[in-house]
Structure prediction request, 534 residues.
Amino acid sequence: MKKRLSLLLAGVMAISLLAGCGESGNGGSSASKADNKTLKFGCTLFANGSLDPSMETNTAWHCMRAGISESLFKFDDNMVAQPWLAESCDVSADHLTWTIKLKKDVKFSNGTPMTATKVKESLDWVREQGKKDPKREKGATAKKYLEYDAEVTANDAENTIVIKTKTAYLDIKGNLAQPVMAIINVSETKDFDHGIIATGPYALKEFKDNVGMDLVANTNYWDGKVPFENVQVIFMQDAAAKANALKSGQVDVVENISNAADIKTIQDDSNFTVDVAPGVRTGFAYMNFKGVLANKELRKAILTAIDIESICKSKTIGGLYTAGRAILPTSLKYGSEDINKNDPYKYNVEEAKKILDAAGIKDTDNDGFRELNGKNIELNYVSYESRLLNDFSDAHIQYLKEVGIKVVAKYGSSDDQWTKLTTGEYDLNNNNWNTVPTGDPEAFLANWYSKAEGNYCGYSNAEYDKLYEAFMKEMDITKRGDYVKQMQQILVDDAVMIVDGYYNSSMAYSKNVKGVHINPIDFYWITNKIEPAK
Prediction:
């Protein structure tokens, strides 16, 4: 038996949910209550009201995690992109032309064959949505993975597509493995929010806001017989709800029980197994440079005032995160271990106070909180209940209070958090991100590249930009790694973010099912490999 996480039961009354019928035209069979016909899956609601991959990152992830959508390539456990809907991929010497051969006999869930023309339509469509709607572009970030002016041509006779780009990609397979780049039957999908037609083992029957999803087997699935006739996905915002639902038998599988006490209970029970992926995720809080946190001395004091080691070892977190200052996990070997050993902001309350005093950030009105430029500092901290982010945020707020920095919690849903991040309505904004979304940190490190549309914090450093631009053009793996180490050090020296720590993803499941596995990239939850144990 392996290991994992959990928290407090808040609304698992959705188990008998989802009886209506959708009209997406997808294949499938009618609902059945038999245990060996229905898989019940508990997970956090990351995106409400839609499964449209082009809408935003969370809707794209939900669609793929639910087993509805698939992409041309898929990451293996070593974070190498392997063919999925594609058969093979060839690249020109200049890394500007990519010829992708597609698998034969793949069909969408409504029975329509997946042709090269259909694949081109999908890749063009997801980028077109961003061009038409700037808000959608920021949310789904399709442009981050395949530039808008990339030319996609289809050859149905040879079952291939050719992608020609103006920018050289190190390996476009990782970019095309993104959930936002999933292959959708665009022309026949009538409702992109609730009736998306794709190629996965399950098709959406009904989506209920804040409650869950009802899925049915895709009877046209290309990769073998689908194990369950039905899947009930139940949204559970509270981590303990997942643990309690699993223990009570209300669900068969849950993702990411993120509380030390609950996960220990699950691990110690022979009725359950916990599968853990090596961590490529970092929990971190953006600092908004467009507000009071443009002051570097204030940022340095904040980092010095927070005991990241103690938080990660606390009773609540319980080792589910490993503390570190560098933004990339130590498992990725980009110099993070050396950066962490030479942490310039080791926890020291008195030193934090000295930094603030020296910068003239003092409490002049004796209300217990400091002012900057004659105004009270009041930081708005945006966070949401996922992977212990609110627990980290609570701890940060208490530590900062000790040095006279007032922070106000602005917690809400993941949708709230994402909206406030993209619109800049925050001072601190806590996240948990995959740091190598393409098998490489290029897309993630763009968050601090001043010219990137996804630079939501307003950070700008000419040296960082120069290194990032050289990194994007470099095709040599060793040299790319050197650039990453330098960029990481700049981010630490500039006190750009609060790093919560490095997180491992997991799934826990009962003895009723088998084939459950969590991948390091965390894109694939419900798959055709999960099947009844009996």
Q: What stands out?
A: The longest helix spans residues 116-132.
